[in-house]
Write a structure and sequence with these properties.
heterotetramer, A alpha+beta, B mainly alpha, C mainly alpha, D mainly alpha, B: mainly alpha, globular, C: mainly alpha, flat
Chain lengths: 312, 532, 96, 224
């Protein structure tokens, strides 16, 4: 019974193939030069082994050889660099209109918030054939969202949002791991990415038990009395939020800033840093009162208030 | 030679504890380092075996998760800061640099002894941290885990590493001044042995890199005690600032570990091929090129860490440039074998092993410098395999080769040749069996620092653990027979391998003041063609 | 560091010049020049450092090797700063 | 067979005074000591450099907070301190000159004045620290800052205390070494042919002054 020896990971995303082709090229170059050196050593070792009647003959240094084994590696590494960085920029560029999913990494679990509803812990259900953009936040230390089968990886840095996108191509369940050491149960911070047919995904999404993040966000919006300043026209102390998502807004300091997730998060935690033009820096900070999940829910709620040109 | 009329040398020049613990003789300080380094090597190696035992099974069943985290942290810290960085410079460098340049001692003998004491004090701090509960932040101390969330002996270990850094600075400073100011007459730069070039380049890195590690550790200590937010994102800090400061030293540190090994290999390959090195100036200058370029590439540790893609492009390009000088060295060593008269003594086996394994280690580094591929293999076992091929396949192989090559000069005794060759082969086989499967594990997506892993990776992990036990055995044999040789080994002549170099013109073991009269150098290095 | 002995007059002149530069850097701070305040402050400090190094620390009459050692520290610091800032100052550039 | 070192330029007064056994003559020993100290100063440049890098990164990220926080520093005391340190550098340079000329009492005088000026600097620094303590500007749990971005201001103050604290630590080490030199001068160890320790510690002292030359504008003159 031949043991099923795993040699190559599954290719289950659009970028997996292109990354593997580059890896195979690098493997070929590496094996070629390794074999070259090993063979030369073996051949010279046998051919010039010390034996009576053979004395070492001096060999003058030949500049042409030195130039050769400087130029050839330079050329090869230039190819590797251009191919590698070109592919990197392409793979990192998320296509417009990708489906947004919010993911929070906290010490030793992943919580996932689908905009249209359903929260998951340690699981990520995605439709096949559609680009998905994950917005990653960390509650505590640096984690790393890594799906080997998709060849995608991105550190989740606390204090800011990082993003990662992929488009799954094959139905099935693929392993999700945390690849940046984050503490005692770092090796337990794993999960599954379940790729489903788009239709099955919609059904799965529909019958979620808990209410969608937008509704949870609205509840938070009320309980923390954000509405008092931002909603009621009469007391309009805070800038209006309806239809603002994605627009670029002029600040008191004169610079224009995109009204996106990062700006919303920054304004919740450090409100007086970038104040909208025409408003005074009177908003209190909610730093230790809202965790990353709740901030995502408030963002989901603000997004549900209609978006400007809908660019997250 | 009966014990009675053994000539006066640095070993029997004076007796008693004080003569060793207060010595200012660079040769005795080298032996003090040799003993302390071997102890740390055994401790670090023991942790490595525990890690490999744990990874025999997919489930984490040998030790708890927290203990496993402490094991790989301690393995990393002890092996890097207490074995690999000091090994060749402090033992072979201290012993041989004055001998090779015809000097009576290093420029600052008192600083040299102080460097050993600082190393020991740093070691005591770190071992104290190990004994009283260990530290579980990984040898990289990434914040905010190390500065806020970890609750193990971070401060004690950080102090240990901070102190040991000064030992490295003092050694580097000593070497630079000695090589500049105390060369024998006629010994111009282009006649220097490549061992000296390699140690000169290493010392530049030690002097210019280590302080930045010292300041990043100081900032962790400050942040951990006052929580003022330097690396804490909640207070406006940026965790990536620590990564930049840390890797600014820690990448050149890997060149501190490998460059001396390259110097040793250049000496061994020329001696056992009875030939001048091929392309002397190229090999010498590529040591300096590695030292200089080594400081520009640290960003390739941070391609997926949230650093900007622009920085990723810059660092990826520079990382490819630093691979070129290493390639030049490998090609020149191989070309040196051509038309030589090669004998396969143990040092030569270690040197040839070094060239082969360092080539694989270097070429796999290209995967990690290529942006698109690094996204997939970063922080996986591919990285572990890459740097162990360089560190264990390269630096440790060269260290063992150098110890064997200069053992007659250091101790006046010859090691048993047959046993040495067997041990070299065992080490080569055990090493490859341990670390080659890890390339596959890495590409398959097994993350590093994992206490438990999915079942389908078990095959490769079992092979790796088997290899580790062979490797462990391979390292024990030399320790045994080298100790044995101190008493029973054949007494060595002045130049048992009739190698070239000023150090081989002194008796074995050399007298306390090295040379009766300062030698005058008239020929180039490795002039094996003139002397058969 | 040869044994050339620098006259007291030179030391005094250097000291006075350093005080003038100190005054200059304070005055320059009060002139609002935006980003150039930082540049001005650094150039004046660099000038003061050059004065101290060449006269007080006898760099002028030292072996050129000492020159290299003196510049090596600053050059490597520049490497650390420039390459770190290629990350911090370019976060929004190539990709959003 | 005495060896004439050909690779080193003959110094003006390459006298053959007392020198360690591993050196050929005292000129070689003096040059080795100077090169060694300059290399050590290079490590110190990089040690403080790590702090300067962090400071530059955060200052460019939070310019307003840093400007606001910098205005809380006492410019008068800072300027006086810079003057004091420049004067101490002058007096150290004079001390080295007196050692070269073999004027023992003048050397002792200048060493003392350098150490006293160093102590004055530390005293002023200490008063500033106490002042900050009362204003609750010391980073940590009881940090209080009225301006808009209080935690970014705390970042400024953690760099302020880290940089000036480290600098003050180097000053203390310098003063201790000056004290040792004073004792050795009394024991008449230094003269025109042997005064390497004076020069080496002089280099160290000037270096500590150079660090303050950069610290002062960076911390006190962010935006006035």
């Amino acid at each position: 019974m031949l043991i099923e020896l795993p040699f190559w990971p599954q290719q289950a995303s659009t970028v997996a193939g292109s990354v593997d082709v580059l890896s195979i090229f690098l493997t070929l170059v590496a094996s070629f030069f390794s074999f070259l050196i090993f063979l030369l050593i073996f051949f010279f070792a046998i051919r010039f082994r010390r034996r009576p009647g053979l004395t070492a003959t001096p060999v003058p240094t030949r500049l042409s050889l030195e130039v050769l084994w400087t130029a050839v590696p330079l050329g090869l590494t230039a190819v590797m660099f251009t191919w590698g960085s070109g592919l990197y920029l392409h793979n990192q560029q998320d296509p417009p209109g990708a489906m947004n999913i919010y993911v929070v990494g906290k010490q030793w679990m992943w919580t996932v918030e689908h905009l249209e509803g359903r929260r998951e812990i340690g699981e990520l259900h995605v439709p096949a054939g559609r680009p998905v953009k994950l917005i990653l936040a960390s509650q505590d230390v640096i984690h790393d969202f890594f799906i080997p089968a998709f060849r995608v990886k991105q550190d989740v840095v606390p204090g800011r949002y990082t993003t990662l996108w992929f488009e799954a191509t094959r139905i099935g369940s693929y392993r999700l791991v945390c690849a940046q050491y984050c503490g005692t149960r770092h090796s337990g911070m794993i999960g599954n990415v379940v790729v489903m047919e788009p239709q099955d995904y919609q059904n799965w999404l529909a019958n979620g038990a808990d209410d969608p993040p937008a509704k949870a966000g609205e509840r938070l919006f009320r309980t923390f009395s954000c509405a008092g300043c931002h909603e009621l026209q009469a007391t309009q102390k805070g800038p209006p939020l309806i239809g603002m998502y994605g627009k670029s807004v002029r600040m008191e300091s004169g610079e224009t800033v995109a009204f996106d997730d990062a700006y919303i998060r920054e304004s919740i935690l450090n409100p007086n840093e970038k104040v909208v033009e025409g408003y005074r820096p009177i908003m209190p900070t909610f730093r230790n009162q809202l965790n990353e999940d709740e901030i995502f829910q408030i963002i989901a709620y603000i997004r549900s208030l209609g978006a400007g040109d809908a660019k997250p | 030679m009966t014990h009675a009329n053994v000539p006066e040398n640095y070993l029997n020049a004076s007796w008693g504890w004080r003569s060793w613990l207060l010595t200012r003789d660079h040769k005795r300080i080298a032996l003090l380092y040799l003993i302390s380094i071997t102890l740390f090597f055994i401790v670090g190696g023991f942790f490595a075996l525990l890690i490999r035992l744990e990874l025999l099974t997919p489930a984490g069943d040998l030790v708890q998760a927290e203990t496993y985290n402490k094991l790989f942290t301690m393995h990393g810290l002890i092996m890097i800061f207490f074995f690999l960085i000091p090994s060749i410079p402090s033992v072979l460098g201290n012993f041989l640099i004055p001998l090779m340049i015809g000097a009576r001692d290093l420029a600052f003998p008192k600083l040299n002894l102080l460097s050993w004491y600082i190393y020991i004090i740093g070691g005591v701090f770190t071992l104290a941290a190990v004994v009283t509960g260990g530290v579980d932040t990984g040898w990289t101390f990434y914040t905010p885990y190390s500065s806020t969330y970890a609750n193990s002996n971070v401060i004690l270990t950080a102090l240990g590493i901070f102190i040991t850094g000064f030992s490295s600075i003092l050694t580097g400073l000593n070497f630079i001044v000695t090589i500049h100011k105390m060369r024998a007459p006629g010994l111009t730069w282009l006649r220097l042995p490549l061992f000296i070039w390699a140690h000169y380049a290493t010392s530049l890195i030690m002097v210019l890199g280590t302080p930045v590690l010292a300041i990043s550790i100081t900032l962790i200590l400050l942040e951990r005690s006052f929580h003022s937010g330097i690396f804490d994102p909640k207070l406006g800090g940026d965790p990536l600032l620590f990564q930049h400061l840390f890797w600014f030293y820690s990448h050149p540190a890997v060149y501190i570990m490998i460059l001396p090994g390259m110097g040793v290999v250049s000496e061994i390959v020329t001696c056992y091929s009875r030939k001048k090195i091929f392309g002397y100036t190229f090999v010498a200058l590529s040591s300096l090129a590695i030292a200089a370029l080594g400081f520009l590439v640290w960003g390739h540790h941070m391609f997926v860490s949230g650093a900007s893609p622009f920085a990723g492009m810059v660092f990826s390009m520079l990382s490819f440039l630093v691979a070129i000088p290493s390639g030049i060295k490998v090609f020149n060593w191989t070309a040196t074998l051509y038309k030589g008269s090669i004998s396969f003594d143990a040092p030569m086996l270690y040197a040839l092993g070094f060239i082969g394994l360092f080539t694989i280690g270097g070429l796999t580094g290209l995967f990690l410098a290529t942006l698109a591929v690094d996204v997939h293999v970063h922080d996986t076992y591919f990285v572990i395999a890459h740097f162990h091929y360089i560190m264990v396949g390269g630096a440790v192989m060269a260290y063992f080769g150098g110890i064997h090559f200069w053992w007659p000069k250091i101790t006046g005794r010859l090691y048993p040749e047959v046993w040495a060759r067997i041990a070299a082969l065992i080490v080569f086989i055990g090493f490859n069996l341990t670390f080659f499967p890890q390339f596959l594990l890495g590409y398959l997506g097994m993350p590093r620092r994992y206490h438990a892993y999915p079942e389908e990776f078990q095959v490769w992990n079992v092979m790796s653990t088997a290899g580790a036990s062979i490797l462990g055995l391979g390292y024990l044999i030399p320790i045994i027979y080298l100790l044995w040789s101190l008493r029973y080994g054949r007494v060595a002549t002045e130049n048992p391998w009739n190698a070239m170099g000023l150090e081989w013109q002194t008796p074995s073991p050399p007298p306390e003041s090295n040379f009766a009269a300062t030698p005058i150098v008239t020929e180039e290095a490795y002039s094996y063609d003139i002397h058969t | 560091m040869s044994n050339t002995i620098v006259s007291t007059r030179t030391y005094l002149a250097t000291f006075v010049l350093l005080l003038v530069l100190l005054a200059l850097t304070i005055v320059a701070a009060y002139i609002p020049m935006g980003r150039f305040n930082w540049v001005a402050a650094m150039t004046i400090s660099a000038a003061k450092t050059a004065l101290i190094a060449s006269f007080f620390m006898h760099l002028r009459s030292s072996h050129r090797l000492v020159w290299i050692a003196a510049c090596a520290g600053c050059f490597w610091l520049a490497l650390l700063m420039i390459l770190s800032l290629t990350d911090f100052w370019t976060r929004g550039w190539l990709l959003p | 067979m005495t060896s004439i070192p050909d690779s080193r330029p003959l110094t003006v007064a390459a006298s053959h005074g007392v020198h360690d056994h591993q050196f050929d003559d005292s000129a070689q020993q003096q040059e080795a000591a100077t090169l060694g100290m300059w290399l050590f100063l290079a490590t110190e440049v990089l040690f403080f450099g790590g702090l300067f890098t962090g400071y530059t990164v955060y200052r460019s990220a939070y310019p307003n907070a840093f400007g606001e926080a910098s205005r809380h520093l006492d410019l008068v005391l800072g300027t006086v301190n810079t003057g004091v340190l420049l004067l101490s550098s002058f007096s150290m340079a004079m001390a080295v000159q007196s050692a070269q000329l073999g004027k023992r009492w003048r050397l002792l005088g200048f060493l003392t004045s350098t150490a006293v000026l160093g102590a004055v600097f530390l005293a002023i620094k200490f008063t500033e620290y106490v002042h900050k303590f009362h204003e609750h500007l010391v980073p940590g749990s009881q940090f209080v800052f009225s301006g808009p971005e209080s935690q970014h201001a705390q970042l400024f103050f953690s760099f302020y205390f880290a940089m000036t604290g480290l600098h003050a630590l180097h000053m203390i080490i310098g003063i201790v070494m000056l004290a040792v030199l004073m004792v050795l001068t009394l024991a008449n160890t230094f003269g025109p042919e042997y005064h390497t320790p004076i020069e080496t510690i002089g280099l160290y002292w000037h270096f500590v002054d150079v660090i303050w030359v950069f610290l002062f504008p960076l911390l006190y003159l962010v935006s006035r």
